[in-house]
């Protein structure tokens, strides 16, 4: 199938690359199919709907937050039919800001993908120290103190 | 909405497998215990709403910023 993307133009998508989000995403319940497109030479991906023009910037959190620790609760492991930890891929949705340095990632609700069966889900972590809006680039001392 | 009155240590069954119990009442705070099958996810509503809002912001963020995607890409490559 062909989707219209912002950066790559029209793109032929292999059906087996499509990740299925059975219940969509919070705020986007009807969006149940996405592909993850690597943005060359950056640590970013575009998570693009195959049903509309909706897309998100996402990151591999471990490139930014080495110690980021996600524990998946039973309902998630069951819903995504996760058998091996190695099959799990984690992304976080990024909010781009005018000043790119202030862009943030949602660490409290990571996107979890089972690479084996291409099932995905945005998981809300309960009782977590992680923020919905964590700046991803190191902040200068001045900016940090004004927050 | 169905409204039921319960006392401490009393509970409510929802269907056959979901049980909500009132664990403690302290001022205007109520501690609720939830027993549910493991495939049921339980969240504080305000957290779910916040995630919804954050997703909507994120989806619009690259539209709302004045720079176009190629600009963003250029900046990201510099990172």
Largest interface: A-B, 38 and 32 residues
State the major sheet of chain A.
9 strands, antiparallel
Shape of chain A: globular
Total strand segments of chain B = 3
- The SSE string of chain A, one letter per element, is EEEEEEHEEEEEH
Task: State the share of residues found in helices of chain A, binned by percent.
Answer: under 10%
Radius of gyration of chain A: 16 Å
| Tally of DSSP helical segments of chain A | 2
For the largest beta-sheet of chain B, the strand count, sense and barrel status come to: 3 strands, antiparallel
- Number of discrete helical segments of chain B: 2
What share of the residues of chain B does DSSP label as strand, in percent? 25-35%
Indicate the structural class of chain A: mainly beta
Shape of chain B: elongated
Query: What fraction strand of chain A?
Result: 25-35%
List keywords for this structure.
heterodimer; A: 147 residues; mainly beta; two-stranded antiparallel ribbon; 2 helices; B: 79 residues; alpha+beta; 3-stranded antiparallel beta sheet; elongated
Provide a descriptive summary of the structure in words.
The complex is a heterodimer of chains A (147) and B (79). With 147 residues, chain A is mainly beta. Helix content of chain A is 8%, strand content 32%. Chain A has helices at 74-79, 141-146, and strands at residues 2-5, 9-12, 19-20, 33-38, 44-49, 55-59, 88-95, 104-105, 111-114, 119-122, 134-135. In chain A, the strands form two sheets. In chain A, strands 3, 4, 5, 6, 7, 8, 9, 10 and 11 form a nine-stranded antiparallel beta sheet that branches. In chain A, a hairpin with a 5-residue loop joins strand 4 and strand 5 (44-49). By secondary structure, chain B is of the alpha+beta class. Chain B contains two helices and three strands. Chain B has helices at 45-64, 69-78; strands spanning 11-14, 18-26, 29-35. Chain B is elongated.
């Amino acid at each position: 199938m062909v989707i219209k993307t912002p950066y790559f133009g029209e793109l032929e998508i292999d059906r087996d690359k499509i990740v299925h989000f059975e219940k969509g995403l919070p705020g986007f319940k009807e969006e149940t199919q996405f592909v993850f497109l690597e943005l060359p030479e950056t640590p970013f991906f575009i998570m693009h709907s195959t049903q509309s023009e909706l897309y998100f910037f996402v990151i591999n959190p471990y490139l930014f937050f080495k110690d980021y620790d996600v524990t998946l609760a039973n309902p998630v492991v069951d819903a995504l039919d996760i058998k091996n930890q190695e099959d799990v891929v984690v992304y976080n949705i990024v909010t781009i800001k005018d000043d790119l340095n202030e862009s943030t990632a949602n660490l409290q609700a990571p996107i979890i993908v089972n690479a084996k069966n291409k099932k995905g889900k945005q998981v809300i972590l309960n009782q977590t120290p992680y923020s919905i809006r964590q700046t991803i680039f190191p902040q200068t001392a001045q900016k940090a103190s004004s927050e | 909405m169905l409204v039921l009155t319960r006392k401490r240590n009393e509970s409510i069954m929802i269907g056959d497998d979901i049980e909500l119990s009132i664990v403690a009442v302290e001022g205007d705070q109520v501690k609720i215990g939830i027993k549910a099958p493991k495939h049921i996810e339980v969240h504080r509503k305000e957290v779910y709403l916040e995630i919804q809002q954050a997703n909507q912001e994120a989806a619009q963020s690259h539209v709302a910023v004045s720079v176009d995607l190629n600009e963003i890409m250029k900046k990201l490559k510099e990172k």
